Amino acid sequence: MGRYNRDVGGYRGRRTITDILKFIAAVLAVLVVVVLGGIFYLQRYVVYTDEGAKLELPPFLQFLRWEREEPEPAESNTPPDLSDVSFTEDPSGSVSEPVSELEEPAGFALELPVSDVVSGAAAEKLAQAGAQALILEVKDQEGRLAWHSGRAEADRAQVNGSQANSDALAQWNQGEVYTIARVCCFRDNSIPYYYNKLALRVSGGNWRDELGLRWLSPAQEDAQGYIAALCGELAGLGFDEIVLEQFAFPTAGKLDHITRGENYDAAQFTPRLESLLTQIQQAVEPYGTKISLRVGRDTLTGAETSSGVTGALLEGYAFRVWMDEDGLLPPLPDLLEPAGITGGTERLVSIAGARTEGSQLFQAVVP
Questions:
Q1: pLDDT, tens digit, 9 for 90 and up, residues 115-155
Q2: Do 333 and 236 share a structural domain?
Q3: pLDDT confidence of 44, banded at 50, 70, 90?
Q4: Residue 206 domain flag
Q5: I need a labelling partner for 227 at 20 to 30 A (CA). Which of 21, 159, 287, 347 fits?
């Protein structure tokens, strides 16, 4: 008689079509709930502009951003990314003094990252390059600061540098090396996100320039106050000279999309810039820091009229005028006098040099 198999369980039949459809329906239901939940959560970050809906996410969700990347234009008025800038200049000169009466110039200057000052490598690198002066980018176009600012806006927008950087800069500036701070003023991709009232606006959102970057409004009093306060802090850290870049109204991008009103009134562009520069001069005056302005050729020739910068404004407020050497005619020094800028070429810093593959070295010489 055969042995009874006690290990055999009950019959397990194959899955039916109904079972499979029920499983698929359950999965789809879960996905629908997740997607709807995500849509409702992200709605708070959708803004509507003349170019359609855009998603402006907070920093911790930037990886979800789906905005289409615009190709970089072949030409723009944006200053080049100067990771190494050098120029010969005179830090002790006065706008009203002729070159022959100036003290010995600082000489060749080299741009280095602030991290080289913090690490202690800056002095050796300057010596190796034969440079006697140093340039540091301390506020970039993203709005990031290389030092720790006391402004609440910098903390909220998460652009503040460290106190260790501030301490290192203050110590460095006690030395003999002439040091220049580069400040990108109103092109600021961070502060406008957190403070919409300070921004150039379009209907339903922040205006973006040809690089897709946000701007503070040069006409907005609080935006001016923020920039002036930052310059005052830099002067307090001991910088000899501050070069203001993008300190005027924008000249590239879809300017016609900017919302008109008291924050963008062409008739008030120049007076607003005068107000800004007056505040900055007052903020740095106790420290003896010089304020220089960086502009393009078209500003001096009058070919652009959307920035608010005039020759008279440069004459009245710029210790030096920084310009990119473009090889065009007339040469840059010949543009000064016709624009009403006195003092001769000792007030001109001509940033020159050709960008080569793998190199970002630029030089500038004050004749």
A1: 999 999 999 998 998 888 899 999 999 999 999 999 999 99
A2: yes
A3: low
A4: yes
A5: 347
How many separate domains does the chain show? 2
**Same domain for 182 and 320?**
yes
Give me the chain's average pLDDT, please: 80
Confidence of residue 37 (pLDDT cuts 50, 70, 90): low
Which one-letter amino acid corresponds to residue 213? L
Residues 55 and 100 placed together within one structural domain of the fold: no
DSSP state of 50: T
Report the C-alpha gap between 133 and 362 in whole angstroms.
15
User: What mean pLDDT is predicted for residues 96-103?
Assistant: 35
Q: Indicate whether 22 and 161 sit together in one domain.
A: no
Q: For residue 79, tell me if it sits in a domain.
A: no
Contacts made by residues 108-112, CB under 8 angstroms, sequence distance 24+:
108/132, 108/133, 109/85, 109/133, 109/134, 109/135, 109/178, 109/180, 110/84, 110/85, 110/86, 110/134, 110/135, 111/82, 111/83, 111/84, 111/85, 111/86, 111/135, 111/136, 111/137, 111/182, 112/84, 112/136
Q: What is the pLDDT of residue 80?
A: 38
Q: Are residues 33 and 111 in the same domain?
A: no
* CA–CA separation, 53 and 68 (whole Å): 11
Q: Is residue 70 situated within a structural domain?
A: no
- 131 and 24 in a common domain: no
| Average pLDDT of span 306-319 | 97
Beta bridge partners of 152: none
Beta-carbon contacts of residue 199 (< 8 Å; ≥ 6 apart): 191, 192, 206, 207, 214, 215, 216, 217
Residues 71 and 211: their CA atoms lie apart, in Å, by: 9
- The answer to whether residue 219 sits within a structural domain is yes
b (16+ CB within 10 A) / e for 195-222? beebbbbbeebbbbbbeebbbbbbbbee
Residues 43 and 133 in one domain: no
Q: Which domain holds residue 222?
A: 84-365
The continuous run of DSSP H or E covering 365 comes out as strand 361-365
Residues composing the chain = 367
pLDDT digits (tens, 9 = 90+) for 209-257: 999 999 999 999 999 999 999 999 999 999 999 999 999 999 999 999 9
